[in-house]
Amino acid sequence: MAEFLQFCVSGLTVGAVYALVALGFTIIYNASDVVNFAQGEFVMIGGMATVFLTAAGVPLPLAALIAIAAAMVVGLALHRLAIEPARGASPVTLIIITIGASIFLRGLAQVVFDRQFHSLPSFSGDTPIQFGGAAILPQSFWVLAGAGIIVLALWAFFNRTLLGKAVLATAANRLAARLVGINTSFVVGFSFVVSAAIGAIAGILVTPITLTSYDIGTLLALKGFAAAMLGGMGNPLGAIVGGLAVGLLEAFGAGYLSSTYKDAIAFIVILGVLFVMPGGLFGRASVERV
Amino acid sequence: MQALFSHRLAVPLVIAALVVALSFALPSSFYLRVAALVWISAIAVIGLNLLMGYAGQVSLGHAGFFGLGAYAVAVLPAQFSLHPLLAALAGALVCGLIAFAVGRPILKLKGHYLAVATLGFGILIAMAISNESWLTGGPDGMPVSRMTLFGWRVRGAETWYWITGGLLVVGAWIAVNLVASPTGRALRALHDSEVAARVAGIDVARYKVRVFVISAVYASVAGSALALVNGFVTPETANFLHSIELVTMVVVGGMGSILGSVAGAAILVVLPQLLTTFHEYEHMLLGLMMMVIMIVLRSGIVPSLAALFQRRRK
DSSP E strands: which ranges in chain A? Predict the structure, then answer.
């Protein structure tokens, strides 16, 4: 039982990060139909920039804010310089562009930062909290709480503010949104900025547990994409459930089955689910956007 | 002139002429080796182009088949002392069977769901290859024994240049015939509209699986050739980035263009060779190159050039 609880907590912690990456995917996809494979690089930028700023003597909260701002600038640049000029290109072309961007950002990080693994000190100490026989790192609570706050804030933003509703309107029907006077280009750029901020926050919160380096983005993007598809592309609730599910699958797979194949287990389950439910867990059967 | 270019043999002949002409133009064995790598990639890209360009189905996991083909000629001769040619044949057969088995459920998916399923499938193969180190040497890769044909050891850049060039011409010839066959027509029909194709009496699922199997065999053959040329295999041949590289070659060269497949392969094999001189900026430049090419030439080099040529003549 203690073991089970331990796997649950570690699975949920990692899953929360996947969920945030998947949520970033979903926000950009809904606003622009672009699958942004550079999403994992935002997580990397958040973690790496915070590590290097704190090492330079900047206090952690300020370093975190600067790192988030840096990721947002990168997100905006990605939209303005790479996505906007390719408007109207096929989905495969857009996927290649975002993967090109992800390779570029990884190369940039290699030059600006370095090629080592880095960690941050835990925000509130390293003494594990005993709970039902499981030892829980305090940083896990930061990750879970951080993810929870982001989700609530996004919900409030999309349902309670005019700009949020403009984003939803653009997602529902771009032409109609433009006809009622919404600047859809601004909305798409904005969605890139928000996704970048979410990714960077996830990167900062999880770095004390999982470490960070210039190349963590690829696998995160793949798993975030898989999680978003598992939940049903374009569905924010699906992204969160999908992310947590992938995290839990990995934790239980590594614990009970095989730690070398923990990444494989998640992908096998995703393939299985898609074979039975071709639109993901929460997807509508008629979703086709190609 | 027009009739000459649209003849079924035109494309394989152009490629054959290119292979022969380049053999005179290239100054050293280093260049011949790079050219052999281009021919090998082009074989895999032609297969993937049949799937993507003609049938309109994306695969983000084709490096998985490429890797299986490569490891077939590494593992089978080492474990069962099978002849490399038979090993390559076995690899192609296994890839075809796997593609046949997973094809139906995977190709039922559409758009991004198809992308994530093929991606996951490719990653599973890559993981198996790098984790089963007792068989595959793990992340470090393993050596491939030299091939001997009738007591003659096949070696040297020039020999491989001709072998891979010949394979490419044969591959292109099979591809143009396939495209011109009833299967090719069925594929283009289901690319345009699956519903319309079904109404016209085409078994959509069967044709999709058929082209998936064919493209998997192309990838496997290319993988085997690469392993034999290099004398070494690493798990990188099967990984996600290699899948993306193959897809990029298809799109850069031009979807649905056999000549474009060769052009796309040439660009993405030769440019990184030039970029290695930039050392630590190599990845940045590679990423930048992918973005710029895709933004500027979004419909691919060969179709873009063909459109330009047509406009000039009018």
Answer: 129-131, 134-136
B313 has a pLDDT exceeding 80: no
d(CA A217, nearest CA chain B) in Å: 13
Number of other CB atoms surrounding residue B265 within 10 Å: 28
The predicted-structure confidence for B126-166, as pLDDT tens digits, reads as follows 999 998 888 888 888 899 888 777 767 777 788 899 999 99
Task: Tell me which residue in A102, A110, A278 faces B113 most closely, judged by beta carbons.
Answer: A278
Residue B34 lies in a domain: yes
Q: How many residues would you count in chain A?
A: 290
Write down the pLDDT at residue B5: 58
The three-class DSSP label of residue A120 is: coil
Q: Are B191 and B50 in contact (CB under 8 A)?
A: no
B 211-250 residues with CB < 8 A to A = 240-241, 244, 247-248
Task: Looking at the complex, report in whole angstroms how far the Cα of residue A101 sits from the nearest Cα belonging to chain B.
Answer: 6
- What's the CA gap between A74 and A80, in Å, rounded? 10
Asked if the Cβ–Cβ distance from B298 to A90 is below 8 Å, we say yes
Number of helices and strands in chain A (H, E)? 11, 2
Contact A263 B240 (CB under 8 A): no
Cβ-nearest to B247 among A96, A268, A274: A96
Quickly list DSSP for B75-138: HHHHHH---HHHHHHHHHHHHHHHHHHHHHHHHTS-HHHHHHHHHHHHHHHHHHHHH-HHHH-G
Which residues span the domain enclosing B158? Answer: 2-239
Q: How far apart are the first and last CA of chain A?
A: 46
Burial code (b: 16+ CB inside 10 Å, e: under 16) for B115-145 equals bbbbbbbbbbbbbbbbbeeeebbeeebbebe
What residue type is A93 in one-letter code? T
> Would B295 be classed as within a structural domain?
no
pLDDT digits (tens, 9 = 90+) for B214-263: 999 999 999 999 999 999 999 999 988 899 999 999 998 988 899 999 99
Please state, in angstroms and rounded to a whole number, the distance separating the CA atoms of residues B300 and B193: 22
- Provide the 10 A C-beta neighbour count for residue B166: 13
Q: Domains in chain A and their CATH numbers?
A: 2-276 (1.10.3470)
* A247 neighbors A18 (Cβ within 8 angstroms): yes
The CA–CA distances, whole Å, from A176 to A33, A161, A183 equal 16, 19, 11
Q: How close is the nearest chain B Cα to the Cα of A100, in Å?
A: 4
A60: closest CA of chain B, how far (Å): 29
DSSP state at residue B241? H
Residue-wise DSSP of B40-61: HHHHHHHHHHIIIIIS----S-
Residue B177 inside a domain? The answer is yes
CA Rg value for chain B:
19
Rg (CA), chain A: 19
List all residues 6 or more positions away from B134 whose beta carbon is below 8 Å from its beta carbon.
none
Instruction: Determine, for residues A82 and B291 on separate chains, whether the beta-carbon distance falls below 8 Å.
Output: yes
Distance CA(B50)–CA(B99), nearest Å, equals 14
Asked whether residue B245 is assigned to any structural domain, the reply reads no
List the 73-112 stretch of A: residues with Cβ below 8 A of B. Answer: 82, 85-86, 89-93, 95-97, 99-108, 110-111
**Structural domain tally of chain B?**
1
